């Protein structure tokens, strides 16, 4: 326990907490957009449950560090001449998560732009989004983001107590800011579209990262990784430009995106 109060541990704690928040940005984006399907009074509950699950997943993974490390080791090799790969558990999870994000972001863009008035169940009634279905979607993405987050933590420090404290602190900070972020996303349709575009970009990044970790070689060309710094710079720059546009459009009436059932207009949910 005394190892936590050393100068090295404190520096690692501050650095790791900051990194966990940065790595959690994409998780907050997804949680905010997923929670937008619900009525305004249900959104905080869905966000808190989602972030609570993120914290639980991370703490469980930290208690099974040996299992997490084993996921980064190849369990099978493929050599088909033009295609070579050494698949790992981590790479398959990232690949599956990337496909899931691509599907969800694309379907959300379709719904918001094309509308859902024609999408009815077999009985002729519109299907409604429930908190449980939103939480289930959030849980799937949390598994992907949690493994990536924990592997980053393991690379920074070997002190499990420091990693656990950093995870708890980062999730609490994200819980505090998730509400304002969610409301801001609700009130600005262009930010919703940017967020969904970010999810598509993150999905492609996860696919590339999964292929890179599997050491995939296609037609003698190795798949490289996408530096996350480039990704976060693109997100930050896009948001900066959009914030400037929002200031210029303040007097204009914003466009309306199609709503989900359970999102009454009086809630102010777009």
What secondary-structure arrangement, pairings included, does this model have?
Layout: H1 7-23, H2 25-35, H3 43-63, H4 65-70, E1 74-79, E2 83-88, H5 89-114, H6 131-156, H7 160-187, H8 189-213, E3 217-218, E4 221-222, H9 228-248
Antiparallel strand pairs: 1-2, 2-3, 3-4
Identify low-pLDDT runs. 117-127, 264-270
Helical content stands at 55-70%
For the largest beta-sheet, the strand count, sense and barrel status come to: 4 strands, antiparallel
- How many helix segments? 9
Q: What is the average of the pLDDT values?
A: 76
Task: Write down the overall geometry.
Answer: globular
Q: In what range is the share of β-strand residues?
A: 5-15%
Structure summary, number of beta strands: 4
* SS-derived structural category: mainly alpha
Could you walk me through the main structural features you see in this protein, from its secondary elements to its overall organization?
The chain is mainly alpha-helical and 270 residues long. It has nine helices and four strands; from the N terminus they run H-H-H-H-E-E-H-H-H-H-E-E-H. It has helices at 7-23, 25-35, 43-63, 65-70, 89-114, 131-156, 160-187, 189-213, 228-248; strands spanning 74-79, 83-88, 217-218, 221-222. It has a four-stranded antiparallel sheet with strand order 1-2-3-4. It is globular. The N and C termini lie far apart (49 Å). The model is unreliable at 117-127 and 264-270 (pLDDT under 50).
